Amino acid sequence: MFNHKALDFDQEMPLVYTATSKYNFYFRSHISKFVLENEGVPLNPFMIFDYFLLDSVERDLVRAGNNNVVKRSDEVWVFGSVSDGVLAEIKIAKEMKKPIKYFKIEKSRKIISITKEEVEMEGDVENFRSEL
Asked: For 57, which of 7, 10, 31, 38 is 20 to 30 Å away at the CA?
């Protein structure tokens, strides 16, 4: 009879979409680690699609993929500043009534829970803070 250590783990964990601006691309592994350590399964678009699959496909195809991952996730966690793409992902999550959490990333790779009022908005979406 086949047996493997992985079969011992049947704990249900929420699927967590990690919404992140391109400016935090280099923290993608730390973000996934943080979600795992907080008992979630990270659905990290920068781990799934790298950065738009290195522009080897149309960016809208990757955006459609990201939107589908958001829709299938249980929660959305926002890391760092909010860009236009992250705001779109938040809007999808809100429409589907998914829990949304916000986090700040410090230079030391420390991740801290913050309120949506404390979220930094990138220049082109500053006027849309009420959408959070």
From this structure: 31
44-88 pLDDT tens trace = 988 887 777 777 888 898 899 999 999 999 999 999 999 999 999
The pTM for the full model equals 0.88
Amino acid code (one letter) for 51: Y
Q: Taking the domains of the chain in order of start, what are their residue ranges? A: 11-123
For 27-84, give the DSSP string: GHHHHHHHHHHTT-EEE-HHHHSTTHHHHTS-HHHHHHHHHHHHHH-SEEEEESSB-H
The b-or-e profile of 7-41 (16+ CB within 10 A means b, else e) is eeeeeeeeebbbbbbeebeebbeebbebbeeeebe
Look up tokens 């700040």; give the residue. Answer: 104
Token output for 56: 């080897």
Amino acid at 58: E
